[in-house]
Amino acid sequence: MKPANITQLLATYIHALHILHYHGVLDGYGHLSVRNPDNPATFFTIYQMAPALVSGLDDIGEYRVSDSERARPGNPDAKDTVERFIHGETLKRYPDVNVVLHGHAEEMVAYSISRVPLRAATHMSPIIGEEVPNFDITKFYRPNDTQDFLVRNQRLGAALAAEFDTSSNSNTYPRHNVVLMRSHGFAAVATDVKMATYEGIFALTNAKIEASALMLQHAYTGQAAQGRDGIAYLTPRQIYDSWQTERGIVDKPWALWVREVQVNPLYVNELDPDQ
Question: Which GO terms label this protein's molecular function in UniProt (predicted)?
Protein backbone atom coordinates (compact mmCIF):
# COMPACT_ATOMS: atom_id res chain seq x y z
CA MET A 1 0.00 0.00 0.00
CA LYS A 2 1.34 3.41 -0.96
CA PRO A 3 2.07 5.57 2.10
CA ALA A 4 -0.38 8.41 2.60
CA ASN A 5 0.68 12.01 2.13
CA ILE A 6 0.46 13.01 5.78
CA THR A 7 1.39 16.64 5.08
CA GLN A 8 -1.49 16.96 2.62
CA LEU A 9 -3.85 15.25 5.06
CA LEU A 10 -2.88 17.62 7.86
CA ALA A 11 -3.18 20.64 5.55
CA THR A 12 -6.80 19.56 4.94
CA TYR A 13 -7.20 18.95 8.66
CA ILE A 14 -6.06 22.49 9.51
CA HIS A 15 -8.43 23.90 6.91
CA ALA A 16 -11.24 21.92 8.55
CA LEU A 17 -10.48 23.40 11.96
CA HIS A 18 -10.55 26.90 10.50
CA ILE A 19 -13.75 26.25 8.53
CA LEU A 20 -15.52 24.82 11.57
CA HIS A 21 -14.57 27.92 13.56
CA TYR A 22 -15.58 30.27 10.74
CA HIS A 23 -19.03 28.65 10.62
CA GLY A 24 -19.54 28.69 14.38
CA VAL A 25 -19.26 24.96 14.98
CA LEU A 26 -16.09 25.35 17.06
CA ASP A 27 -15.31 28.26 19.36
CA GLY A 28 -12.13 28.80 21.39
CA TYR A 29 -12.55 25.21 22.54
CA GLY A 30 -13.46 22.02 20.72
CA HIS A 31 -11.35 19.71 18.62
CA LEU A 32 -11.14 17.39 15.65
CA SER A 33 -9.14 14.20 15.19
CA VAL A 34 -8.11 12.14 12.19
CA ARG A 35 -6.83 8.57 12.19
CA ASN A 36 -3.32 8.11 10.82
CA PRO A 37 -3.81 6.35 7.44
CA ASP A 38 -0.26 4.97 7.61
CA ASN A 39 -0.82 3.58 11.11
CA PRO A 40 -4.48 3.09 12.13
CA ALA A 41 -3.34 2.53 15.73
CA THR A 42 -2.61 6.26 16.08
CA PHE A 43 -4.48 9.49 15.43
CA PHE A 44 -3.72 13.17 15.07
CA THR A 45 -5.39 15.92 17.05
CA ILE A 46 -4.55 19.42 18.19
CA TYR A 47 -2.82 20.23 21.43
CA GLN A 48 -4.67 22.29 24.02
CA MET A 49 -5.27 25.44 21.98
CA ALA A 50 -8.01 27.27 20.10
CA PRO A 51 -8.83 25.52 16.80
CA ALA A 52 -8.79 28.80 14.86
CA LEU A 53 -5.16 29.42 15.85
CA VAL A 54 -3.77 26.06 14.71
CA SER A 55 -1.31 26.79 11.92
CA GLY A 56 1.23 23.98 11.55
CA LEU A 57 2.81 20.75 12.70
CA ASP A 58 3.90 22.14 16.08
CA ASP A 59 0.20 22.50 16.97
CA ILE A 60 -0.74 18.89 16.23
CA GLY A 61 0.13 15.76 18.20
CA GLU A 62 0.05 12.07 17.33
CA TYR A 63 -1.65 9.83 19.91
CA ARG A 64 -2.22 6.13 20.43
CA VAL A 65 -5.77 4.88 19.87
CA SER A 66 -5.27 2.35 22.65
CA ASP A 67 -4.93 4.85 25.51
CA SER A 68 -5.02 8.36 23.97
CA GLU A 69 -1.48 9.09 25.11
CA ARG A 70 1.25 10.48 22.89
CA ALA A 71 2.63 8.09 20.30
CA ARG A 72 5.53 10.48 19.69
CA PRO A 73 7.09 13.12 21.93
CA GLY A 74 5.82 15.89 19.67
CA ASN A 75 5.99 19.50 20.83
CA PRO A 76 7.46 19.43 24.37
CA ASP A 77 6.00 22.86 25.15
CA ALA A 78 2.44 21.92 24.21
CA LYS A 79 -0.20 20.57 26.58
CA ASP A 80 -2.41 17.64 25.60
CA THR A 81 -6.10 18.40 25.22
CA VAL A 82 -7.95 17.06 28.26
CA GLU A 83 -10.70 15.46 26.20
CA ARG A 84 -8.53 13.50 23.78
CA PHE A 85 -10.26 10.38 25.17
CA ILE A 86 -13.36 11.29 23.15
CA HIS A 87 -11.31 10.61 20.06
CA GLY A 88 -9.24 7.64 21.15
CA GLU A 89 -12.13 5.64 22.55
CA THR A 90 -14.42 6.33 19.60
CA LEU A 91 -11.74 5.41 17.07
CA LYS A 92 -11.01 2.30 19.10
CA ARG A 93 -14.62 1.12 19.18
CA TYR A 94 -15.34 1.78 15.49
CA PRO A 95 -12.47 0.77 13.15
CA ASP A 96 -14.19 2.30 10.10
CA VAL A 97 -14.45 5.73 11.73
CA ASN A 98 -11.49 7.90 10.77
CA VAL A 99 -12.52 11.32 12.08
CA VAL A 100 -14.12 12.50 15.32
CA LEU A 101 -15.42 16.02 15.94
CA HIS A 102 -16.34 17.61 19.27
CA GLY A 103 -17.78 21.09 19.75
CA HIS A 104 -19.92 23.22 22.06
CA ALA A 105 -22.21 25.19 19.73
CA GLU A 106 -24.93 26.69 21.93
CA GLU A 107 -27.68 25.69 19.49
CA MET A 108 -26.69 22.05 20.02
CA VAL A 109 -26.40 22.42 23.80
CA ALA A 110 -30.01 23.64 23.93
CA TYR A 111 -31.24 20.29 22.63
CA SER A 112 -29.00 18.41 25.06
CA ILE A 113 -30.71 19.95 28.12
CA SER A 114 -34.29 19.93 26.87
CA ARG A 115 -36.72 17.17 26.02
CA VAL A 116 -36.97 18.37 22.43
CA PRO A 117 -35.50 15.74 20.11
CA LEU A 118 -33.06 16.91 17.44
CA ARG A 119 -34.45 15.54 14.17
CA ALA A 120 -33.60 15.87 10.49
CA ALA A 121 -35.57 18.86 9.20
CA THR A 122 -33.76 19.62 5.93
CA HIS A 123 -32.36 17.58 3.05
CA MET A 124 -28.96 19.13 3.75
CA SER A 125 -28.85 17.49 7.17
CA PRO A 126 -29.53 13.78 6.66
CA ILE A 127 -26.57 13.02 8.94
CA ILE A 128 -28.92 13.81 11.84
CA GLY A 129 -30.72 10.55 11.04
CA GLU A 130 -34.04 9.52 12.57
CA GLU A 131 -32.87 10.30 16.11
CA VAL A 132 -29.89 11.76 17.93
CA PRO A 133 -28.81 10.11 21.20
CA ASN A 134 -28.06 12.32 24.19
CA PHE A 135 -25.07 11.26 26.27
CA ASP A 136 -25.62 12.08 29.95
CA ILE A 137 -22.18 11.89 31.53
CA THR A 138 -23.62 12.26 35.04
CA LYS A 139 -24.87 8.67 34.87
CA PHE A 140 -21.27 7.46 34.63
CA TYR A 141 -19.65 9.53 37.35
CA ARG A 142 -17.94 7.85 40.27
CA PRO A 143 -17.69 9.57 43.69
CA ASN A 144 -14.17 10.90 43.14
CA ASP A 145 -14.70 12.10 39.54
CA THR A 146 -14.41 15.78 38.65
CA GLN A 147 -17.98 16.54 37.67
CA ASP A 148 -17.34 19.29 35.13
CA PHE A 149 -18.89 17.43 32.15
CA LEU A 150 -15.48 16.95 30.49
CA VAL A 151 -14.56 13.51 29.14
CA ARG A 152 -11.35 13.23 31.14
CA ASN A 153 -10.48 9.52 30.96
CA GLN A 154 -10.85 6.30 29.00
CA ARG A 155 -13.85 5.13 31.04
CA LEU A 156 -15.90 8.20 30.20
CA GLY A 157 -14.64 8.19 26.63
CA ALA A 158 -15.77 4.59 26.19
CA ALA A 159 -19.20 5.44 27.61
CA LEU A 160 -19.59 8.26 25.09
CA ALA A 161 -18.38 6.07 22.23
CA ALA A 162 -20.99 3.44 23.09
CA GLU A 163 -23.71 6.07 22.68
CA PHE A 164 -23.08 6.13 18.93
CA ASP A 165 -24.28 2.51 18.95
CA THR A 166 -23.42 -0.17 16.43
CA SER A 167 -25.38 -0.60 13.24
CA SER A 168 -27.42 -3.73 12.66
CA ASN A 169 -25.33 -4.19 9.51
CA SER A 170 -21.89 -3.48 10.93
CA ASN A 171 -19.93 -3.54 14.16
CA THR A 172 -17.18 -1.37 12.68
CA TYR A 173 -19.17 1.82 11.96
CA PRO A 174 -21.78 3.29 14.32
CA ARG A 175 -25.50 3.61 13.77
CA HIS A 176 -25.49 7.35 14.58
CA ASN A 177 -23.26 10.04 13.11
CA VAL A 178 -24.04 12.61 15.80
CA VAL A 179 -24.45 12.36 19.58
CA LEU A 180 -25.51 15.22 21.85
CA MET A 181 -23.66 15.64 25.14
CA ARG A 182 -25.80 16.88 28.01
CA SER A 183 -24.95 20.42 29.20
CA HIS A 184 -21.81 20.27 27.07
CA GLY A 185 -22.16 20.05 23.29
CA PHE A 186 -21.98 17.27 20.74
CA ALA A 187 -19.70 14.74 19.07
CA ALA A 188 -19.78 13.49 15.48
CA VAL A 189 -18.01 10.78 13.50
CA ALA A 190 -17.11 10.44 9.83
CA THR A 191 -14.94 8.53 7.39
CA ASP A 192 -12.90 11.56 6.32
CA VAL A 193 -12.13 15.16 7.25
CA LYS A 194 -14.28 16.80 4.58
CA MET A 195 -17.34 14.78 5.57
CA ALA A 196 -16.81 15.56 9.26
CA THR A 197 -16.71 19.26 8.38
CA TYR A 198 -19.94 18.92 6.42
CA GLU A 199 -21.54 17.09 9.33
CA GLY A 200 -20.57 19.75 11.84
CA ILE A 201 -21.81 22.64 9.73
CA PHE A 202 -25.13 21.08 8.78
CA ALA A 203 -25.85 19.55 12.19
CA LEU A 204 -25.64 23.10 13.51
CA THR A 205 -27.71 24.43 10.59
CA ASN A 206 -30.38 21.80 11.25
CA ALA A 207 -30.50 22.71 14.96
CA LYS A 208 -31.08 26.37 14.06
CA ILE A 209 -33.75 25.59 11.46
CA GLU A 210 -35.63 23.22 13.74
CA ALA A 211 -35.56 25.68 16.65
CA SER A 212 -36.84 28.49 14.42
CA ALA A 213 -39.60 26.29 13.00
CA LEU A 214 -40.69 25.21 16.47
CA MET A 215 -40.89 28.82 17.66
CA LEU A 216 -42.87 29.86 14.57
CA GLN A 217 -45.23 26.90 14.88
CA HIS A 218 -45.81 27.50 18.57
CA ALA A 219 -46.41 31.24 18.07
CA TYR A 220 -48.86 30.52 15.25
CA THR A 221 -50.85 27.61 16.68
CA GLY A 222 -49.74 26.94 20.25
CA GLN A 223 -49.47 23.25 19.36
CA ALA A 224 -45.94 22.86 20.72
CA ALA A 225 -47.26 23.40 24.23
CA GLN A 226 -49.65 20.50 23.70
CA GLY A 227 -46.93 18.11 22.60
CA ARG A 228 -47.67 18.36 18.86
CA ASP A 229 -44.95 20.35 17.15
CA GLY A 230 -46.43 20.15 13.63
CA ILE A 231 -43.01 20.22 11.92
CA ALA A 232 -42.48 18.36 8.63
CA TYR A 233 -39.42 16.26 9.46
CA LEU A 234 -37.73 13.99 6.95
CA THR A 235 -38.99 10.42 6.66
CA PRO A 236 -36.54 7.50 6.92
CA ARG A 237 -36.57 7.13 3.11
CA GLN A 238 -35.95 10.85 2.62
CA ILE A 239 -33.08 10.72 5.11
CA TYR A 240 -31.49 7.79 3.31
CA ASP A 241 -31.87 9.21 -0.20
CA SER A 242 -30.67 12.68 0.85
CA TRP A 243 -27.63 11.15 2.52
CA GLN A 244 -26.72 9.23 -0.64
CA THR A 245 -26.89 12.48 -2.59
CA GLU A 246 -25.10 14.80 -0.18
CA ARG A 247 -22.20 12.47 0.58
CA GLY A 248 -21.34 12.46 -3.11
CA ILE A 249 -21.13 16.24 -3.58
CA VAL A 250 -19.29 17.42 -0.47
CA ASP A 251 -16.43 18.73 -2.64
CA LYS A 252 -18.74 21.46 -3.97
CA PRO A 253 -19.08 23.45 -0.72
CA TRP A 254 -15.59 22.40 0.42
CA ALA A 255 -13.91 24.54 -2.24
CA LEU A 256 -15.91 27.58 -1.07
CA TRP A 257 -15.25 26.88 2.60
CA VAL A 258 -11.49 26.62 2.01
CA ARG A 259 -11.44 29.89 0.07
CA GLU A 260 -13.31 31.67 2.85
CA VAL A 261 -10.59 30.83 5.37
CA GLN A 262 -7.70 31.29 2.95
CA VAL A 263 -8.57 34.98 2.46
CA ASN A 264 -9.26 35.63 6.15
CA PRO A 265 -6.08 36.83 7.92
CA LEU A 266 -7.14 35.20 11.19
CA TYR A 267 -6.46 31.75 9.76
CA VAL A 268 -2.92 30.61 8.96
CA ASN A 269 -2.22 27.23 7.36
CA GLU A 270 1.52 26.71 6.95
CA LEU A 271 0.91 23.41 5.15
CA ASP A 272 -1.25 24.93 2.41
CA PRO A 273 0.96 25.86 -0.58
CA ASP A 274 -1.73 28.30 -1.79
CA GLN A 275 -1.80 30.36 1.40
Answer: aldehyde-lyase activity; metal ion binding
